[in-house]
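Changelog note: in this version the structure field was regenerated for every chain. One regenerated record is shown below for reference.
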Amino acid sequence: MSLVSVYIPTRNRSALLRRAIDSVLTQSYPRIEILVCDEASDDDTPEVMADYIARFPGKFTYLRNDTPQGACRARNRCIENATGTYVTGLDDDDFFHPQRVACLVDLYVTHSPSFACTRFRYFQDLQQVSMLRDRVYSSVELGKADALTLPGLLYANHAGNQVLTELSRMRALGGFDEAMPSWQDYDMWIRLAERYGPAVRSRHFLSFVDDDRSRARIRNSNKRAEGSQRFIAKHAGLMSADQQRNHRNIQYVMNRERPPLGDIARNLSLGGYKSTLKVLIHKFFGVALG
């Protein structure tokens, strides 16, 4: 059975980090190593990690940066130190369904994709995802998956913020692009799909993303808009005209802009009709849909 490396970047979120780590420790897949890169936390994160290391000998690799270098660099440090055949990630405020890793490894072995991922659910209260979190899936259910092609991924990040792929592939591509202020995950998935072919996504919600608006998140900052601009510039050569129009609409939505109707008409995207609808809804009703 192949070893899976799980990387977790963290900074000053020791209580949430425990939730993330515990969700990895309770995975039904038995062969997992956990790599945590601490971004110079000044809370009790070092003590929390010392406790886990003592209780689970050989399970953890704890890396610490003396000064914050960004989550992207923290992920790459973990990837550089990982020893698994496969690698996947987890943000310190998110968590996995207990069957997530087993599902992704099986999908990867069965379909030989560039990467495997699952559907994900945003939440602000654990009660919102309690039924999904506690559901037990059969192997038949977990075997159901859909293909994610490069053209489809160039319209939107259908993979979410975490995937499972071969560690050698992540290293061959140089890891996450540390020059990107955001959208490093999306950029990585595009590069994997371009180099290694279509991906595959489970039809079930096996990843849970904390959407607590009281905490600073990249998707709530202007770094997200800057990241999307760099993403478009970096991958423009892969995009059709329709895909580029779609991403201009995505930027309108992120920036909460209400462009003139002429601009909306010029950026009408058939393949990315959802972003066009979001721009129109915000334009006429003032409702900003994320």
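Spot check on this record: The chain has two domains: 4-210, 240-285. The longest strand covers residues 199-210.
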